[in-house]
Amino acid sequence: MSGYRLDPLGEGVYDNEMVRVIPVRWLNLQEYQSKKIMVDHGVTVQRFFVADTSQDAMEAAKRLKAKEIVLKAQILAGGRGKGSFTSGLKGGVHLTKNPDDVGQLAKQMLGFNLITKQTAKEGVKVNKVMVAEALDIARETYLAILMDRACNGPVIIGSPQGGMDIEEVAATKPELIFKEVIDIFEGVRGDQALRMAANIGFKGPLQQQAAEQIQKLYSLFLKVDATQVEVNPFGETPDGQVVCFDAKINFDDNAEFRQKDIFSQDDISESDPLETEAAKYDLKYIGMDGNIACFVNGAGLAMATCDIIDLHGGKPANFLDLGGGVQENQVYQAFKLLTADPRVEAILVNIFGGIVNCAIIANGITKACHELKLKVPLVVRLEGTNVTEAKRILSESGLPIISARDLEDAAKKAVANVAPK
Ligand code: ADP
Ligand code: MG
């Protein structure tokens, strides 16, 4: 089994490598965008500019008039510090004392792909760099606020050993991960913020300062309808400042109506164009690397379909989740998207009609197949609401549909109709 699973935090669906395959949230902000929001909420971040040419990066470095400058490639994936560029440059985060070096470094970042442990093999193209005042970091801690299903609300997670190896700390030293469960009605209490600050190693006056930053981060979390605010490193400088050096904010997409400004900043430059196109029609499309397209309703059914294809020796090329309340036009658009990927050699339709009316699906499929002149085999398994009518529509359509009794049969037939992968 490929082992897709629903994430316990409700963050989406992950595969067995913990790579998110169905994001619940679609909004993507770069680090510099998240940091602007943090500045607006009184959170301490270092001074910075954003540049998309090496010339601008160098000028920004001069304007900062800082003792030391940090240049950071802006991509949505983490692990940049330890990443490498297709230009040969090592490290997506560089420190230098000389503003003239910034131009040279930016030249080796902009337009090249940055490969990190969180990106695909080919990496992600860097279009922007952040030029910031570098500060000495005496200590790197980890701090995150997120919605936790197990606690029925927000939880603050912290570790005294933050920085680039946090995943390893979480795996090997779980006793160094601290948690504070927040009562959503009460907010973060002073003693909770102080206890977290102490747990993650802030001492003396720094403890109060860290606690204040935690409070401000929590009020930001609420104000912007975040589902997660992650600061790593949440650092301490030798001259006694608590600073958020890196930030990632995720937002609740149900709150789009009241966070219009934030949602209008969505950075889609790294998204799969097919996913973006699907979102226009309220469809969820996820691309994978096999050759069987899956047309399903519901994330759970999508996972089950991928797993059973895997079980029978096939590989899903993608899946498209129709969701509930579907209209015929969406079915058409869905087929158009599924067949846009040239690797697709067969389509497996697996619909369990509850809210979804199978007859609407059948009409949509018929129309789509005729208009798109479908060339690949189509295996269909329909079950549930109005299925008899749906089967009649399909059998009278004259289309060469391979019908399947159940999911197992459907998977076997789909796999039998493609080249082995
Ligand atoms: P990522 O998490 O993608 O690797 P970070 O922004 O966390 O990127 O940067 C990686 C490392 O670079 C940090 O852990 C920190 O050690 C260093 N760093 C980041 N920003 C600064 C800064 N402003 N001043 C000094 N060092 C920094
Ligand atoms: Mg980081």
How would you characterize the overall build of this protein?
The chain has 13 helices and 22 strands. It has 3 domains: 47-133, Dna Ligase, domain 1, CATH 3.30.1490.20; 139-263, D-amino Acid Aminotransferase, Chain A, domain 1; 271-416, Rossmann fold. It is 33% helix and 26% strand. With 421 residues, it is of the alpha+beta class. The strands form 5 sheets. Strands 11, 12, 13, 14, 15 and 16 form a 6-stranded antiparallel sheet that branches. A hairpin with a 5-residue loop joins strand 2 and strand 3 (20-23). Helix 5 (190-199) crosses helix 6 (205-223). Bound molecules: adenosine-5'-diphosphate and magnesium ion. The site of adenosine-5'-diphosphate has 20 residues, from strand 5, strand 7 and strand 14.
Strand percent estimate: 25-35%
End-to-end C-alpha gap: 16 Å
Do you know the CATH architecture of the largest domain?
3-Layer(aba) Sandwich
The small molecules bound here are:
adenosine-5'-diphosphate, magnesium ion
Average residue-wise pLDDT? 89
Which structural class best describes the helix and strand composition? alpha+beta
Broad CATH class of the largest domain: Alpha Beta
Number of DSSP strand runs:
22
CATH topology of the largest domain: Rossmann fold
What is the assigned CATH homologous superfamily of the largest domain?
Answer: Succinyl-CoA synthetase domains
